[in-house]
Design brief:
By secondary structure, this protein is an alpha+beta fold. The chain has helices at about 5-15, 25-30, 35-50, 75-80, 90-100, 105-115, 120-125, 150-155, 170-189, and strands at about 20, 55-60, 65-70, 105, 130-135, 145-150. The strands form two sheets. Strands 1-3-2 form a three-stranded antiparallel β-sheet. Strands 4-6-5 form a three-stranded antiparallel β-sheet. Helix 2 (about 25-30) crosses helix 3 (about 35-50) and helix 5 crosses helix 7. The longest helix is centred in the C-terminal third of the chain and has 20 residues, at about 170-189.
Length: about 190
Amino acid sequence: MKSKQYQAVIEGILFTMGESVEITRLAEALELETEQVRQILHKMMEGYQKEDRGIQIMEIDGAVQMCTKKELYEYLIKVAKQPKRHVLTDVLLETLSIIAYKQPITRLEIEKIRGVSCAHAVNKLMEYNLVCELGRLDAPGRPLLFGTTEEFLRSFGVQSIDELPVLNQDQLDEFRQQAEEEMNLKLNV
C-alpha cells in the first residue's frame, strides 16, 4: 500500500469511529509499526493544516481523533442544534484544577484543599464529562478516586496531563496569600 492509501484508511477509520482511536490499534489494523503510523498521522495533520481544512486530527494521550476545528463553532451552531456549551464557574474551575493536578484524588482530599464541600462541583464536572471515577482507594471506606477524561484534554487542547502548565513557587505563594486574605475577609464578616 502507498502512503496515500494508508492515509485514506486512517481517515476512514477515524471518521467512522467518531471517538479517539489508540495509535497502536491503528498500527495493528494497518500491519505497520507504531512509529510508521505516527509519521503518517503527522503528515496528515500537516496536510489538514496547510490546506486550511475544516477538520483536524488531534493526538490525545496516545490516541488520535478526527474533529472539527474550534474556529468553525459559530457556523456549526447555525446548522446543527446548538451544542451544549458548559459554563465553568470559578468553583468548578478550582475543583477541576485540583483534580487535574492531583489525580487520582478522593473527594475528601479535594475538600481538604478547598476547605469546603465539593460534592456538587465533582458531580457537575462528571456530568460535563471532564472528570470520571478512576476506581477506589485501598483504604477504610474505599473512597472513590477521581481523575480527568479525554474530553478534558480535548477541551483544554492538550495531549496529556503532562502538558498542563507548571506553577512556580512565586505563583503558589501568591495564591496562598490570596486564599488567606479571602479567609480573613470571610471570618471578619
